[in-house]
């Protein structure tokens, strides 16, 4: 009886047969967050944000949101739809948002905590295109949606799905969300994001999530299961579907990630301080609206400040400005005691060295800044336009490595190994030492993708780049995929719900002429 | 008269005609170093290292080193060549090493400070092979040596050359160092590393460095110009040429980077704590020897702890263990108030996503750990066996981005841009705002390599990966290269010295039979 076999399984659990990977596990950040802003700078940005909200205001296109804001004391000009918030109202409302909350998965072992020192990695969400080395770049479609979700299910380092890794554009728009949700709910035992444009897609997600967890829908209020991204249309505009979605989520006690998409030089001033101040104003506006709807509703401070190429207008990601914007955003989120979302992003259109170095910049910036939700954690390519199968595997390796960096270093008499050093002595080697043999199987991170063989061995075996090897890995994962178990009754109930709602949503009276 | 043209030049200085790059500049680290060891753990590792030095000892193969150590009070067994050091002697001697020192370049504007919060990026040093996309992998040779050094000269983000970016194996071994030094001294106005195996290669470097700077050789003692890497043969062995080189450098007051190459599982026990403890013992041993030779001699705490793949024995770099080993090493170096060296390393044999993500892991780990000398900063491939032209450009981009992350964020009334935000208002854009027009040229980092264009534009322009684009960049840099100016008299004096020494080193009496 030893602990070795257990430890061995812990490190080497494989998805299907052959691909080694780390287990699904809760991650906490042991490091003090990096700061690029002084305490005074944080307060200056805070005060500027409050002035933006009080003096400039936000244009709100949704009537329900306008009504809610007016009722709660905002200064609403219904003609221009401009909404201004007094600083006192903002401060009062953001104070009711929770500093941390748990999001409940179908499998309780896959629940995640958002806030504090917890780190949650999500997959890519929302691209219109999908690509792989064999089939090239193509419009998102239902077959790829399902295959990609199967991979997200199989990859343990991904804690959470992100609202559809790609858009199944070959499904009818009005019922697409039903097919997506049913597949997510039955193929994943992890948490997943619902869509946030309007209340219908939120209501249907709530029903399916409740069935999948086999709890009454009302139970979800106390045990949130769903999360969605609410983007502002920067600068300073909140559109109708997004504000309706935000309200529906907050009413049901589900989590909203309030995320301005603020590209400095285009949607904000060109200076980083202004970009963060404007982002902060827009994020706080959404946070305030969630708390008007339901005090205590779970909400995440979303940040997506980057910059554009001022010569071409192209958005850039994983840049130095992106990293500093992320670190500053983390500081602002902590000032408000809110969970903080950042992203793994790249502007590269191909899974190459640029894709990897921009993603590493983004991931390190996020983790060093104390990120809670790393959205777009795996698979994003081309500024978010494309979900890449090979990038999914590259990012999985990046996230696995980062998750191991966060593990503590053991320092005690056994690990200091003085006896082994004395036993081997000058000029020897440690391959056969008892100290080594007792530990070697679990001593080091075992990569999924990295190839450490020498040049000759690598060349003789096909001279494949990491991206080419990633192509083989996702295919093997897919071939060996087995979905996590689910009660057949729940699947049938979800199918019945989807069939009923499909009928309702496609009945002639609802169709556009 | 505005400040814009100056700022424009600062950001956009080009090497030759068309490649934009950052200026050569001093870098300081604004961040508090990350820690993976508690203060108690640091002391436990320290104490273990002292016990290794006192109880196990180091095998020293050089007679001069043995004599020095015996004279200074070490416990020397001349039969086994085992040298043991009492803790008191170690503590006393490491205290005389400087916490920081300046290394003097031919151009004083290229001087570098090693220590404190300064960061110095060096190029790759020492590979036996060289590779590029056109010609493939081949043995290092004189033509490639010169071209590669020209690129190191042209790339501003590289502060320091690293002792020959590749071995010119087509030059005669006994005089190769003379050709290398003469070319480095005349093609670079930056600092460069000399070789460290034996005293001859050190003495010749001192003469050439003095001529290049036009100072008497004796002046170099107070103004060190040279630096070299001294590796131990782990575990716990210091070979003859390395110990002779260390002594020659310290005698002349030149800088030594005491670097054990400790791959956990092979040259040290498999545990990270033991690897760092053994590395620490070996590094301190070399530091002690420098201070025995000349109290106050400049010395850098070198760290190169990584791990091997326990299934194959292949070395791995840029791994989670590598990052944690680097962070721990930085903590140990700071405990002794010594400058700390880490590296930009990858095991990949091809310039692909793996090469980029492993290098980013290594660079972030080093910078977050408070590195002073990032050795092998640009160009290293294949675990250091190969210098890659394309990797040099990828790493240059990585180092440029990191150097921009270290720059402060301006937060003041102008940068907070409230007036611009009010002027543009909800739903507008900032491209034409006066606030933008005043700042856009210098607002953001301009990449050398990254391509931010959209998919269609990228595809129409040849669909080239970052590595393929890097191929075009180094060729353009090389085609446009102009060496920094140097007095013709100095070049002639160096040539005359090399001619004389070449004659001495190749006279028949010195040739091997």
Brief summary of the model shown:
Chain A has 513 residues and is α/β, with parallel strands linked by helices.
Characterise the protein shown here.
Two copies of one chain form a homodimer. The first copy, chain A, is α/β, with parallel strands linked by helices. Helix content of chain A is 44%, strand content 15%. Chain A has an eight-stranded mixed beta sheet with strand order 3-9-21-20-17-15-13-12. In chain A, strands 5-6-4-14 form a four-stranded mixed beta sheet. In chain A, strands 11-10-23-22 form a four-stranded mixed beta sheet. In chain A, a hairpin with a 6-residue loop joins strand 18 and strand 19. In chain A, helix 5 runs parallel beside helix 6 and helix 11 runs parallel beside helix 12. Chain A is globular. Chain A starts with a helix and ends in a 7-residue tail after the last helix.
Question: What are the SSEs and their pairings?
Answer:
2 copies of one chain form a homodimer.
Chain A: H1 4-12, E1 14-15, E2 19-20, E3 27-28, H2 39-56, E4 58-60, H3 63-71, E5 75-77, E6 82-84, H4 87-94, E7 100-103, E8 112-115, E9 118-121, E10 129-132, E11 136-139, H5 142-154, H6 176-187, E12 192-193, H7 200-213, H8 219-222, E13 226-232, E14 237-238, H9 240-251, E15 255-260, E16 262-264, H10 272-293, E17 299-302, E18 305-308, E19 315-316, H11 320-335, E20 340-343, H12 353-368, E21 373-375, E22 380-381, E23 386-388, H13 389-405, H14 413-416, H15 418-424, H16 434-437, H17 455-460, H18 466-479, H19 488-506
Parallel strand pairs in A: 4-14, 9-21, 10-23, 12-13, 13-15, 15-17, 16-18, 17-20, 20-21
Antiparallel strand pairs in A: 1-2, 3-9, 4-6, 5-6, 7-8, 10-11, 18-19, 22-23
Helix pairs in contact in A: 2-10, 4-10, 5-6, 6-7, 6-19, 7-19, 9-10, 10-11, 11-12, 12-13, 13-18
């Amino acid at each position: 009886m030893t602990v070795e076999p257990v430890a061995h399984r812990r490190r080497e659990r494989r998805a299907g047969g052959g691909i080694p990977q780390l287990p699904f596990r809760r991650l906490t950040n042991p490091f003090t967050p990096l700061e690029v802003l002084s305490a005074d700078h944080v307060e200056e940005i805070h005060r500027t944000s409050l002035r933006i909200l009080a003096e400039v205001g936000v244009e709100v296109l949704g009537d329900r949101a306008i009504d809610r804001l007016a009722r709660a004391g905002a200064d609403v000009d219904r003609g221009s739809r401009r909404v201004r918030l007094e600083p006192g109202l903002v401060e009062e409302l953001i104070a009711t948002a929770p500093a941390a909350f748990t999001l409940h998965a179908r499998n309780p072992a896959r629940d995640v905590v958002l806030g504090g020192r917890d780190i949650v990695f999500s997959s890519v969400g929302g691209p219109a295109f999908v690509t792989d080395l064999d089939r090239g770049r193509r419009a998102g479609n239902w077959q790829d949606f399902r295959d990609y979700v199967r991979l997200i299910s199989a990859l343990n380092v991904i804690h959470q799905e992100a609202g559809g890794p790609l858009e199944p554009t070959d499904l009818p728009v009005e019922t697409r969300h039903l097919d997506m949700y049913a597949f997510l709910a039955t193929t994943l035992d992890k948490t997943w994001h619902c869509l946030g444009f309007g209340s219908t897609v939120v209501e249907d997600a709530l029903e399916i999530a409740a069935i999948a967890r086999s709890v009454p829908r009302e139970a979800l209020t106390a045990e949130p299961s769903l999360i969605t991204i609410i983007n502002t249309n920067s600068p300073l505009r909140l559109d109708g579907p997004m504000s309706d979605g935000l309200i529906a989520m907050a009413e049901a006690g589900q989590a909203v990630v309030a995320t301005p998409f603020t590209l400095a030089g285009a949607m904000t001033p060109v200076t980083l301080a202004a970009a963060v101040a404007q982002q902060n104003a827009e994020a706080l506006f959404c946070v305030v609206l969630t708390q008007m709807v339901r005090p205590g509703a779970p909400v995440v401070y979303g940040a997506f400040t980057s910059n554009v190429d001022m010569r071409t207008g192209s958005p850039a990601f994983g840049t130095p400005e992106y990293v500093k914007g992320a670190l500053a955003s983390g500081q602002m989120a902590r000032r408000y005691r809110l969970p903080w979302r950042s992203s793994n992003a790249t502007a590269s259109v191909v899974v190459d060295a640029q894709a990897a170095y921009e993603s590493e910049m983004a991931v390190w910036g996020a983790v060093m800044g104390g990120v809670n939700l790393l959205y777009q954690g795996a698979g994003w390519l081309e500024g978010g336009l494309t979900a890449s199968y090979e990038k999914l595997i590259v990012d999985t390796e990046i996230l696995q490595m980062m998750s191991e960096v966060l593990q503590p270093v053991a320092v005690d008499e056994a690990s200091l190994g003085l006896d082994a050093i004395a036993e081997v002595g000058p000029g020897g080697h440690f391959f056969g030492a008892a100290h080594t043999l007792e530990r070697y199987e679990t001593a080091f991170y075992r990569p999924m993708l990295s190839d450490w063989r020498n040049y000759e061995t690598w060349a003789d075996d096909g001279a494949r780049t990491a991206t080419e090897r990633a192509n083989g890995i996702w295919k093997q994962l897919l071939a060996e995929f087995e979905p996590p178990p689910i009660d057949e009754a729940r699947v049938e109930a979800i199918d019945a719900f989807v069939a009923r709602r499909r009928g309702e949503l496609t009945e002639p009276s609802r169709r556009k002429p």
